[in-house]
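Milestone 3.1: sequence recovery, worked example.
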């Protein structure tokens, strides 16, 4: 996962790169195109939520030197409680990452198809094989850094495009607090949360901080640096997501044009002209392939940690987990006839699974014997519970809407 030995930026950049994928580009574009800035509050909520939960994951990793799955396994003593919870976590991560992987593979396939003209469903199989080959070979880290760089360049171009055609900031300010939920927006709201507050990032981050901040370092200093890293990195990712939403709102809102893989490039035409199509295609390919590597890897860390298996990239059980995630992601990707709809649904699935992972993290963060003086404060718990309740409420409302 890389050893980020920088002063200001660290594993937070990995978290940001993981959520700035095809799902973010697609979901933020759809949000801006269909609802203008009416869902700006949902994006703000997502960014604040990400910082709250990733700070807890970082604190867990730095202080306890354990990942989330390991901590759950080691702190729950009663087997009749432990195993149902661990099985629920494994199922949630397995299902969530398979859905997320579908979006990753489809996003990369859409980008590759726009460049080469090869049908996206055919490319989906090739991309799954590439991701599996990179993970099996162990050379994915170098390629991952190159792809992350491409994703951030694309994000920068969206930011520049936003300032060329700036949004109505007065209107934007009025949407910080929601005055109502627009008709037909619930799936998009949950998808915005699911594409930003990525459940597997909580597992990924708790392991990554242990590489950045060693056990011999002062935990108070390490935590201070980790928090600065988080706010800067996730704040940057949130700003890029907002730029995508804003450019989509400017280009499409009220026009009646349907957002598609090709029309997304229209958002960047003010600065790139006709070459915007190829730039967005390259960005989607890079974002999809990067996430197609990190999602299965995080699933392996989560499942192996929960079951007490070695967290070793060469262990056959570790490899089996990421291989299954890639396989099912590829199967669902090939079966989809509406790629952008599938990507949106994948993000919504993550949003609806988030409370399961969040509640588990909250429980662990209140264990004194694990974290001592670094356990959650009452204020930490208040904000975390508020976020969980809001997320659960949105998910319940969507489920009730589907049933009735």
């Amino acid at each position: 996962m890389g050893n980020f030995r920088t002063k200001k930026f660290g594993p937070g950049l990995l978290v940001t790169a993981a959520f700035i994928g095809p799902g973010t580009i697609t979901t933020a574009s759809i949000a801006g195109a269909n609802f203008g800035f009416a869902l700006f509050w949902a994006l703000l909520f997502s960014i604040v939520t990400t910082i709250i939960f990733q700070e807890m994951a970082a604190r867990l990793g730095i202080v306890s030197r354990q990942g989330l799955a390991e901590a759950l396994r080691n702190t729950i003593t009663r087997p009749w409680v432990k195993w149902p919870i661990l099985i629920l976590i494994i199922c949630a991560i397995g299902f969530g990452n398979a859905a997320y992987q579908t979006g990753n593979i489809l996003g990369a396939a859409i980008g590759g198809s726009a460049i080469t003209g090869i049908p996206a469903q055919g490319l989906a199989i090739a991309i799954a094989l590439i991701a599996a080959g990179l993970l099996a070979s162990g050379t994915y880290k170098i390629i991952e850094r190159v792809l992350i760089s491409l994703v951030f360049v694309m994000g920068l171009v969206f930011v520049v495009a936003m300032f060329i055609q700036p949004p109505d900031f007065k209107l934007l300010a009025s949407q910080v607090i929601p005055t109502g939920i627009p008709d037909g927006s619930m799936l998009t709201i949950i998808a915005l949360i699911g594409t930003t507050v990525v459940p597997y990032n909580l597992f990924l981050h708790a392991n990554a901080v242990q590489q950045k901040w060693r056990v011999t370092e002062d935990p108070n200093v390490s935590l201070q640096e980790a928090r600065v890293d988080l706010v800067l990195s996730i704040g940057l990712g949130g700003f890029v997501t907002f730029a995508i939403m804003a450019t989509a709102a400017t280009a499409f809102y009220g026009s009646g044009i349907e957002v598609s893989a090709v029309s997304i490039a229209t958002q960047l035409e003010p600065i790139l002209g006709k070459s915007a199509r190829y730039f967005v295609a390259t960005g989607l390919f890079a974002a999809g392939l990067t996430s197609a590597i990190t999602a299965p890897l995080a699933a392996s860390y989560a499942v192996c940690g929960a079951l007490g298996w070695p967290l070793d990239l060469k262990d056959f059980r570790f490899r089996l987990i990421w291989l299954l995630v890639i396989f099912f992601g590829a199967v669902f990707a090939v079966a989809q006839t509406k790629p952008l709809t599938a990507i949106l649904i994948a993000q919504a699935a993550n949003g609806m699974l988030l409370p399961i992972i969040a509640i588990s993290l909250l429980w662990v963060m209140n264990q004194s014997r694990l974290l001592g003086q670094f356990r959650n404060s009452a204020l930490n718990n208040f904000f975390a519970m508020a976020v969980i309740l809001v997320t659960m409420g949105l998910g319940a409302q969507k489920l009730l809407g589907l049933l009735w």
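The chain has one domain: 11-403. Residues 11-403 form a domain with the Amino acid/polyamine transporter I fold (CATH 1.20.1740.10).
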